[in-house]
Design brief:
Blueprint: H1 2-21, H2 30-78, H3 83-111
Helix pairs in contact: 2-3
Length: about 110
């Protein structure tokens, strides 16, 4: 039964890909088709680059936030009397790191 499900999904995927394979460009000339293909390729590479760049920015920001949290916990454990100041500085640092991620997202949206 499992193999039948895989065969069914494979046939569905192939049938959906066949529709895209026989699609024709909007213009009649070969030059228009080539220009459309180049535009689509450029847009695809922009999307891939934006996704990789934002993923990298978000991942590194997550690592930075984890380090800030762990260092704040260590600082509070060493000196419980300064926990208020440590907490305030930690929240400010986390807000600044998160703002950098939002700026990266804004840049991705502007470029795409």
């Amino acid at each position: 039964m499992k193999k039948m499900k895989y065969v069914l999904f494979a046939m569905a995927a192939l049938s959906l890909l066949a529709v895209v394979a026989v699609a024709q460009p909007g213009g009649d000339t070969a030059e228009l088709a080539k220009r459309n293909a180049v535009d689509v390729t450029v847009l695809a590479y922009k999307a891939i680059g934006g996704g990789i760049g934002f993923g990298l920015a978000a991942g590194l920001a997550g690592i930075g936030q984890g380090l800030v949290g762990s260092r704040a916990a260590e600082g509070t454990a060493r000196n419980p009397g300064a926990s208020g100041q440590v907490m305030t500085q930690m929240i400010i640092a986390l807000a600044l790191i998160e703002s950098l991620v939002l700026f990266a997202l804004l840049i991705v949206f502007v470029k795409l």
